[in-house]
Amino acid sequence: MSEIVLLETESEFDNIKCISIPFDDSVPEYYAISYRWGVHPEWKAQTPNYTASITSVSQGNLIKLCKLYRSKIRYLWIDVICINQADKFHRKMAIKNMDNIYRRAKRIVAVPDLCYCDQNPHPIRLVKEEILCAVKDIWSRQMELFPYGYRKYLGDDHEDLLSSKGAIFIYQIVQDWASRCWVISERTIGVNGKKMDMIIISANVDIPYLLCESFFGIDWYGIVFGRDLITTIIYCKSTKYIDRLFAIFPHTIYKDLVPKLVDENRTIDNMTDLKKTLLDIVDCHDKLTLLYIVVADGGYQP
């Protein structure tokens, strides 16, 4: 990937600004955005090299994000603008370099509710004050349960919190975001690099996700070897099955297989294809783990 496209935080609703520069040591500091795609009316943004057609995030939310970080950083990297999704060659190059893009970012900003807006709302409709109150309650309960920072997941300890619409909303959007295969890669880089922030854009509030680990029940430092590797690939979520390998393999002993898989135009149509592909390429230890999962799941089920 010889160039990288970056979105300027000075962008406005009627004036999206981007730069395209060599992806080398001279790249300016940028924040990389981690989110899950939504479904929105198509809108377009002009970059120096192509016109991006965007349906996965609303234009209003993108500009809200730019304004939120304008005083902190000049550039953002977000896939729907910064990858030419209509160009297969450009998308292939981006997939090969996705790991580097997030590792090079100064910070990774997780925005679990970026996919929702007034036209495509979350089923739980809340006002900002309800979300802020829920964040405060989650934090207070966490400190009550674990005053010394011991945060083992004890699920039932938070049942009372989950009677609150605000807490349910936060729990659901974080869980939906965290389970996506590309997000697993992004949050692994962010957490292990001590450079990930999490915000709820609809309320403009930070989430202390590490200190609320027991509430979310997510092992932020998890993956990706042995049984954890295979179960992560099998049970994570993705629009395309092949993306699970593109996203997870760079964190494993199989990282060198990613360029080969991309160049082969390998397609995986269903869960059976995914399991068979894994059997072809993983080592003997991981094959045994996969076979155990196949048997436990009742065989090759699509």
Automatic annotation (TrEMBL):
InterPro entries: HET, HetReg/Transcr_Mod. Residues 30-186 form the Heterokaryon incompatibility domain. Pfam families: HET. This is Heterokaryon incompatibility domain-containing protein.
